[in-house]
Write a structure and sequence with these properties.
By secondary structure, the chain is an alpha+beta fold. The protein has two domains: 1-37; 39-307, no CATH class. Helix content is 28%, strand content 31%. The protein contains seven helices and twelve strands. It has a twelve-stranded mixed sheet with strand order 7-8-9-10-1-2-3-4-5-6-12-11. A hairpin with a 3-residue loop joins strand 9 (186-195) and strand 10. Bound molecules: 2-acetamido-2-deoxy-beta-D-glucopyranose (3 copies).
């Protein structure tokens, strides 16, 4: 059932992307023949980044790779086209309890396809005339299930209990250390996984430089970017399988309460972090994919939200 669904979605994505790519080339041709003044809204509210993602797994086998990626850094209050399937700037501000602008770092959909393992909301605080990066919200989506978890973190450095089955080659134990810089001419996102048995066994990092975007057509810049990310994910899964790394079943079959467990681990993690002054925990376990935000969700600095997989994975 799942395999048939996967096959159908690969075929339909290929057909849709091929047709939309044809349309895109016609549109570009049209604009070459009949140049128009570019709308400034899009270029003013979106910064473009070009960079590299590194993955390194040290145990049980060593496996590392890197690939180039392109990201958009979108001012959510100013963009004329809000990216679909993401938080609104006000929702992000309510969660992060900030009062300034909210930017979303994401790979936008290209020719009808979306694939975004990690997006990050950068929530700024305004005090007088200065705006500083205060909080971030990570949005992690797993493949092929398409489940999503969103959680709040402190960009300077934070540790959260692993909340999602992101890879079929990792169990649910361990915690994620995450940090990111304030995006400027370049940006860095570092994530490492500490596991009770495997130790410090996995690191992922994104390093990207801002590209001057005024003359770039965004549809061309991001053309097939999500498709490449999906290919890398499946290709490296195949290689890990080839290296005999044990395939781990989704925790929903063996431990349906894995989300509550993650929150409980996160609570004890927060208690043990001496620097976490006044840190508190709150979270939601959601069944539906579109749920309302409770205003009391967000006590202090802990917030998680899960969005379940779509049919047929559920
Ligand atoms: C991110 O990780 C890389 C490689 O592990 C390291 O060189 C770099 O200093 C880290 N950057 C930040 C901001 O943590
Ligand atoms: C993270 O998880 C590991 C393994 O479960 C544990 O040893 C460590 O104390 C945890 N906390 C932090 C802050 O790393
Ligand atoms: C966390 O929040 C709960 C309920 O809101 C409260 O009872 C508890 O004292 C808080 N803990 C800390 C460490 O602030």
């Amino acid at each position: 059932m799942e395999a048939a669904y996967l096959l159908c979605s690969i075929i339909s994505t290929t057909l849709i992307s091929f047709s939309l790519s044809l349309l895109l080339s016609f549109r570009l041709l049209f604009h070459c023949l009949f140049p128009r003044s570019r709308t400034t809204d899009e270029t003013a509210s979106v910064a473009l980044y070009d960079g590299t993602v590194w993955h390194e797994r040290r145990r049980p086998v060593h496996h590392s790779f890197k690939y180039s990626v392109r990201y958009a850094f979108i001012d959510l209050d100013r963009t004329p086209h809000s990216p679909p399937h993401h938080l609104s700037p006000q929702q992000a501000r309510d969660i992060a309890q900030t009062n300034g602008p909210v930017f979303l770092l994401t790979i936008p959909p290209s020719v009808g396809y979306e694939q975004n393992p990690l997006s990050i909301y950068y929530c700024y605080s305004k005090e007088g005339s200065t705006t500083t990066l205060n909080k971030c919200i990570a949005e992690v989506t797993n493949t092929p299930w398409g489940e999503r978890v969103q959680f709040l973190f402190n960009p300077n450095s934070d540790v959260v209990a692993k909340p999602l089955h992101v890879s079929p080659f990792m169990d649910m134990l361990g915690n994620w250390s995450i940090r990111t810089t304030t995006p400027g001419d370049n940006l860095v996102v570092n994530i490492s996984v500490k596991h009770p048995k495997l130790g410090d066994y996995f690191t992922a990092s994104l390093r990207a430089n801002r590209v001057s975007s005024s003359s770039i057509d965004h549809a061309v810049f991001f053309w097939l970017m999500p498709h490449k990310v999906a290919l890398w994910i499946y290709w490296h899964a195949l290689k890990l399988w080839w290296k005999n790394v044990v395939f781990i079943q989704h925790p929903r079959y063996g431990n349906p309460s894995y989300k509550e467990d993650a929150m409980a681990r996160d609570r004890s993690l927060a208690c043990c972090q001496a620097f976490a002054v006044g840190r508190n925990e709150s979270g939601q376990v959601e069944k539906s994919s579109e749920s309302d935000f409770d205003s009391d969700v967000n006590k202090n600095n802990r917030w998680f939200k899960w969005t379940d997989a779509k049919w047929p994975w559920c």
